[in-house]
What does this fold into?
Amino acid sequence: MITAYIDESGNLGRGGNYFVLAAAVFDNENGKNRVKRIIRREQQLIAEENHSNTYYEIKSSKLRFERRQRIINKITSHADIDLYYLVVYKKNATLLRQGKPKNLTYNYFAKLLTDMIFAKYNDDFEIIFDQRATCVKSMNSLPDYITINAYTRHNHANREVTVIQRDSKTLENLQTADVISGTVYHAYTYAHPHFLNMIKPRVIKMDEFPRNNFEGSLL
It folds into this structure.
């Protein structure tokens, strides 16, 4: 069973030049549990620093340099996690320039990311997105849209493909995906590839969109 946790950074509106979707992918329980413990430990440290008994969600946008570096070092220290990401340069993305619905546009970018994942593995899949109200224009939900794509484009009809949406507050490895997406977003926004170089050993595939009209490439 392949389990992929997917989260985004940036937005599909006017703020910022980039939108990032990233996936933390596991093919065994040991990897999932190891990285889950890393996030849980950071939650504990933050609670202790704030003299609190409450474990709060790890959000990439709130991480200081030292904590981000420590988390990434720990996450990437073992070859039991695969990373994928897609970076969109919003000003040259046709769907956004044409003012298409943001949910339709989000689903399309999600398809591009999951295409990379489906093409890599020949196994059953569980794809977990951070929970949000998204659907495609045909009124299919995001899970239906991604599942149909897996069955038709990637010939996974004989595989079990489950696509769900969950609240990242309750799933540590969705927070892992948030750390990765936020790290990539920061690198592109500030043209600072330090953390990209740190995650590079675990990145299976990345892409920039649109490929022929992308500004600020870090590939």
About this structure: The first helix runs from residue 29 to 49. The mean pLDDT is 92. The CA atoms of residues 131 and 167 lie 5 Å apart.
